Amino acid sequence: MIDLHLHTTASDGTLAPAELVARAASIGITILSVTDHDTTDGFDEASATAARLGVTLVAGIEVTAVENARDVHILGYFIDPHASPLAEFLTRQRADRVLRVVRIAERLRALGCPIDVEPLLHAAARHPGRSIGRPQIADVLIRSGYARDRDDVFDRLLGDAKPGFVPRAGEAPERIIDVIRNAGGIASLAHPGLLRKDDVIPRLARAGLAALEVCHSDHDADAERHYRELAAANGLAVSGGSDYHGDFGRRESALGRVTLPQADFDRLRALAA
Ligand code: AMP
Ligand code: MN
Ligand code: MN
Ligand code: MN
Questions:
Q1: Is 2-90+174-272 a domain of CATH 1.20.920.10?
Q2: Mean pLDDT over residues 258-273, rounded?
Q3: In this structure, are residues 107 and 153 in contact, taking their beta carbons and an 8 Å threshold?
Q4: Which of 11, 97, 106, 202 would you label with 65, given CA atoms 20 to 30 Å apart?
Q5: Per-residue pLDDT band at 222 (split at 50, 70, 90)
Q6: CB neighbours (10 Å) of residue 273?
């Protein structure tokens, strides 16, 4: 089985990179990519475990771009995870995330949910390679008794247009595609069924996008068919993965459920070569 969309404790996943790779290998995943948000910090640890267990790790990332104040997630594959222009770019992305966490905490205080984000900010300062964001704020809200789980937080407070939402600064998707290509990789538009802005696809295809994430936990059979057709119509390859973050919430047992066909993977790899 092939899964090219997975998160670890380097961003908002709950398993450490070594644990994630071991778990994936134990259920029969043989090719995987760790795609943490705005960081490749989990790569070396994941790579060591993958080598030990005989599974293939594709160097990956999920970068947050912004268009019209909305987040657009761009996956990168076959990148050099230590390329220095990429590393410098990601350092800025993570610094913006820290500033945003501070602003969200201020907003939450005004909304009557005063939480202490100092421990989170200290952890971010101690581990500058890790990225923080709304999921980690959600965890503080849950621990402080203001919410039930992460989904509850996004539904009521931190999702798009909810009262605690703070717009983020960010780069256009075209710029992210360039950053990924300059690090030797190929770019795929993440979960277009969640984005629901199909009109960006032809434009991004012309800007060097290589693939569409057709297989994803939040795509039903109709969405999968629709995006496979759109990929073909725009000359794009197909990527896919579970977007597993750990055993909680709506993607609780997502690992192994959404996988990418080998033929699609072979085409992706050929594009990266
Ligand atoms: P951020 O990185 O701060 O933009 O937070 C977005 C992340 O929150 C996504 O990568 C998701 O993994 C996570 N998340 C968890 N629950 C939700 C939800 N209900 N809606 C949107 N994002 C969610
Ligand atoms: Mn996430
Ligand atoms: Mn995403
Ligand atoms: Mn993801």
A1: no
A2: 96
A3: no
A4: 106
A5: very high
A6: 7
